Amino acid sequence: AQSVTQLGSHVSVSEGALVLLRCNYSSSVPPYLFWYVQYPNQGLQLLLKYTTGATLVKGINGFEAEFKKSETSFHLTKPSAHMSDAAEYFCAVSLSGANSKLTFGKGITLSVRP
Amino acid sequence: DTEVTQTPKHLVMGMTNKKSLKCEQHMGHRAMYWYKQKAKKPPELMFVYSYEKLSINESVPSRFSPECPNSSLLNLHLHALQPEDSALYLCASSDLDKAENTEAFFGQGTRLTVV
């Protein structure tokens, strides 16, 4: 079985500040890891994913995440927050590629102060 | 085309009504999913179809009935719902042919209110 832990429910940063959203996973086999973003009343949009290979993954909108097996972590970062980054962020894990169950963390709300 | 299209965007139905949610994708994906999302919660998997066959049913009540008429379409038939079934229903699809293309593409969702 797999699980995802996203600590905290809300992160607030100033515009231009570093964004760090934490994600820790539990998996009995090498996981596939994802970060999704959800704007109000919208579906989920993939920010980035880790499957195999390079552990530093770059995504859309300037976000990146690093897979650290020893720490079972996949934290999301962005060097400089923009007002448009305010949204709900979900970390998710699946055990294998195709047709596998996506297990989501509880999500974290990012607020950006002007 | 990287879109998953869901209709309708909003739906209000009574507890005795029968309605259907529709989902369509033209990315050639052979896996399609229904998720349910309550406010301030993560999406919860309901059903998975692989190659048009139901492969996962997460113990969903029978008042929810999925259907996959072909590789591009996914329906969710609703009957005798309860107010607690009010939620955002999300459809998603993913590629089954390449393990590295494992991410799910989500539609915008149908906001369902049961009255």
Describe this structure in words.
The complex is a heterodimer of chains A (114) and B (115). By secondary structure, chain A is an all-beta fold. Chain A contains no helices and twelve strands. In chain A, strands 2, 5, 6, 10, 11 and 12 form a six-stranded mixed beta sheet that branches. With 115 residues, chain B is mainly β. Helices cover 0% and strands 56% of the residues of chain B. Chain B is built from no helices and eleven strands. Chain B has strands at 4-7, 10-13, 18-25, 31-37, 44-50, 53-57, 64-70, 73-79, 87-94, 105-106, 110-114. In chain B, strand 4 and strand 5 form a beta hairpin. Chain B starts with a strand and ends with a strand. The model of chain B has no long low-confidence stretch (mean pLDDT 93). The interface between A and B is medium-sized, with 25 and 32 residues.
Keywords for this entry:
heterodimer; A: 114 residues; mainly beta; six-stranded mixed sheet; four-stranded antiparallel sheet; 12 strands; B: 115 residues; seven-stranded mixed sheet; 0% helix; 56% strand; globular
At a glance:
The complex is a heterodimer of chains A (about 110) and B (about 120). By secondary structure, chain A is mainly beta.
Distance between the termini of chain B: 36 Å
Query: DSSP helix count of chain B?
Result: 0
Give the class of chain B from helix and strand content and strand pairing. mainly beta
Uncertain segments of chain B of ≥5 residues (pLDDT<50)? none
Unreliable sequence segments of chain A: none
Helix amount of chain A: under 10%
Give me the Rg of chain A, rounded. 13 Å
